[in-house]
Amino acid sequence: MSKNLNLSSRIGVIGSISPRSAGVGTLTTPWLDMQSLFTVMAVLAIGAFGANATVDAQIEQATDGNGAGAKPVPGSQITQLVAAGGNDRQAQIDLRQEDFDKNAGYRFFRLSVTVGGAATLLAASLVGADFRQGTGTRNVAASVAQTI
Fold it and tell me: At the top level of its lineage, which domain of life is listed (predicted)?
């Protein structure tokens, strides 16, 4: 690999849950097509938990971009994060094409984050790597304002 290659040529932010005070309930990224890349990493960042709050996250898979037949990707669920564990924590979830139920036609995915107990400050990003067509900078989400 060329040492002159910028990391943004290989990876890009392809989806996100923007930083917010997330109330009790579930937040998701848009559905994305795994056929355009080889690997994905979801990065969840918790700023401050509400009193007795919990946070769960997982990757869900579907057969189309509208979420048909949605179900969890096996092994993609984080161990529940709880307020008692402290603030300012992160979790990562790795995803590869092999993790999907491809025989049943599953190829779309999204990140699902569920907050329980009390509002919690959080953000999440889906980072795609090794795109089949083009570079990371050509495949980023529309919400990416700049790549320097």
Answer: Bacteria
User: Any idea which residue has 């919990």 for tokens?
Assistant: 54
Which tokens in the block code for residue 77?
Answer: 């669920």
- Taking only the tens place, the pLDDT of each residue in 42-51 is 999 999 999 9
How does 72-81 read in b/e, with b if 16+ C-beta sit within 10 Å? ebeebebeeb
As a whole number of angstroms, the distance between CA 107 and CA 91 comes to 23
Using CA atoms, how far apart are residues 90 and 43, in angstroms rounded to an integer? 7
| CA separation, residue 73 to residues 53, 92, 140 (Å) | 24, 14, 23
Is pLDDT of 2 > 70?
no
Nearest to 36 by CA among 112, 141, 125, 111: 141
For residue 123, the SS3 value is strand
> Is 124:43 a contact under the CB 8 Å cutoff?
yes
Instruction: Let me know: does 57 contact 39? Beta carbons within 8 Å.
Output: no
CB atoms within 10 A of CB 142: 5
